[in-house]
């Protein structure tokens, strides 16, 4: 049979529960409400501390990957831009060339100013 702390996860809470039960036995039924309130207050404090710790960990800023170099994105997009401009110039004229250049510029700006770590 497994230990109570293993089944319920928190050995300190199980220890406090045993202490509360022992205190209730020693103090009698007249003090039962006070013993229960004290035990529940300790459990609530632990839960609030765990929630605060989880919120603190979740709100930490995301670390950027130190290997990310914006020049790689820019050079890659210009490598793609050249054949796209040629095809747009042949089949679409000046308006198509401007549209392709504008879209590649837009993609570069979005990637450059995006606060999320994508790379």
List the helices and strands and how they pair.
Layout: H1 4-8, H2 11-27, H3 32-58, H4 70-91, H5 94-113
Helix pairs in contact: 2-3, 4-5
Task: Write a concise synopsis of the structure shown.
The protein has 119 residues and is mainly α. Helix content is 76%, strand content 0%. The protein has 2 domains: 4-58; 70-113.
How would you describe what is shown here?
The structure is a single chain. The protein is built from five helices and no strands. It folds into two domains: 4-58; 70-113. The protein is rod-shaped, with a radius of gyration of 32 Å. By secondary structure, it is an all-alpha fold. The mean pLDDT is 80.
Number of E-state strands: 0
The span between the termini is: 49 Å
- What percent strand? under 5%
SSE arrangement, N to C: HHHHH
Rg, please? Answer: 32 Å
For the largest beta-sheet, the strand count, sense and barrel status come to: none
Give the structural class.
mainly alpha
| Spans where pLDDT lies below 50 across 5 or more residues | none
Let me know the average pLDDT.
Answer: 80
Question: What share of residues is helical?
Answer: over 70%
Tally of individual domains: 2
Overall, the morphology is: rod-shaped
Q: Number of helical segments?
A: 5
